Amino acid sequence: MAQQVIGFVGAGNMAASLVGGMIAKGIRPARIWMSDVSEQRLTDLARQHRVHVTARNEEIAERCDVLVLAVKPQLMAEVCAGLKAQFGDRTPLIISIAAGVTVDNLRSWLGDVPVIRTMPNTPALVQAGATGLYAGAGVTEEHRQLASQIMASVGLTFWFEQESELDAVTAVSGSGPAYFFLLMEAMIEAGEQLGLSSHTARQLVLQTAWGAAQLAITSEQAPAALREQVTSPGGTTAAALDVFEKAGLRKLVDDALTAARDRARELAK
Question: Transmembrane stretches, by residue range (predicted)?
Fold first, then answer.
């Protein structure tokens, strides 16, 4: 990643996770700056990661070659206005992790600078994320490599040629963890109804979810094939899956992800 200085505007959980992942991958803390409105948050991060911290976003804009925008979408326009005033003749690479904020939005607020929009998900907090990336006008191959290295520090990265594809990424992986959490929640409640203690039901469900994910990740077979392997004709698994299929689970999932995609489009406007 050469010796570019990387600044984070906003030091929330996702930004902190990225910084932790970058340092774990060998990026020197001395090359990282973070700004935030919370002095306590900055103090804690400086102590934990040995990075530079400041309460002034303008200092990040003045010092850094790469700016990772990690503020709430509703604050982005105001934050960008303050950053732009400090750029002068410089053209730092902008990487946004804010949902629903388009490349055109950012360039209208920041001027003619290279912008990469990303869509990470919350498993990035434990270095198990999936991030979609889209490069706007003026983004070079070096910029793409920089962004890939930063976002890959917390999981897998996927580049897309059309910004609109990030709406589908939002529906599948951005919102995706919540779908699995809902299924876990429902299975835990069902286990309790079947007579298991709350603790036992929770541990069984979480371990099963983790194990199933590991099997799917490490196997060369598709999830459909893995499902078939554990489904004996006329057995217990087949009885449960038959209920899911008759209730239209596949159609329900399709409708849910379509609704999430459509909502992402609305927010982007």
Answer: 6-24
